[in-house]
Write a structure and sequence with these properties.
By secondary structure, the chain is mainly α. Helices cover about 70% and strands about 5% of the residues. The chain contains eleven helices and three strands. It has a three-stranded mixed β-sheet with strand order 2-1-3.
Length: about 300
Amino acid sequence: MSTHNHTHSGVLTFLLPSLPGPGGSGFLTILGLTYSTTLLGNGLILLTICANTYLHQPQFLLLALLATTDLGLALSMLPTILDALWFPAPIISRDVCLLQMCCLYAISTGQSSVLLAMALDRWLAVCHPLYYVAFLTPNRLAWTSLAFILRATIPLLPTPLLIPSCNAHNLSLPFCFPTEVLKLSCGGLGWTYPVVTMLTTATMDIVLITISYSLVLREVMQRISPAGQHKALRTCTAHLCALLVFYGPLFASVLFPDSLPGSFASLGLLASPALHPLVYGIQSHRLRRGLLGVLGCPSTSRIAPNLKRPRP
């Protein structure tokens, strides 16, 4: 394809790749199922947690934050993906590309922060249960959410200065991923800045998440019965697989934005929002009970189960 320098109005534009590309109708089917699972699964989790007061606990509030970031990630990619599906040579303006790029960066960083907070929540609940309820108060959760927002938005402040302003370019992905767009910057700092910030943030989160789950597994293996150990190992394995699904495509898109076909990169980044409701939601008995109550099953209710003390 030839590079489009400007539109007729003189506004800088970017040319997106056409979809579906490899796979044809098979890709469209998988994309539709992925978006349906993402919207339905995360929407039901948010509705269930909001409707059941006994789920207003740190573990489930963090799950609600994760569902919110999953929906934000999927919806922020949707407009340009639809353009790439409907038009043979989709074009996106500089301002729209900048907005989408900032949204993807902020949501990805926020999602990584929430996954870290969920791992620390499990470590505190399993290894220090006496301090769990006293430490994770609503006030501290509010300050934690504010820290997530600042962590995701402050690195975005220099991006308007780094966005390309000399020539338009062809993008290899059907959305404005930060590292690819800033790699096309006229200056030499454009690609280095987002790669360093994103990789530093993700690497630090991965290290802390690994340490948290390692401490949880050690505590479980030392103090819990064999049946409980098997259940804990199965749960931790599922969580680690979900983390791999999130961080794997993210690292691949950051380091090799030009080597992945647009359709594969789209499905890779959408995999984690579709799988998180299944991994983090279905395994919780209380969340399943609340979901059945929201769906109107007669054998369940929205009041708390008959427990003297809710387990973390």
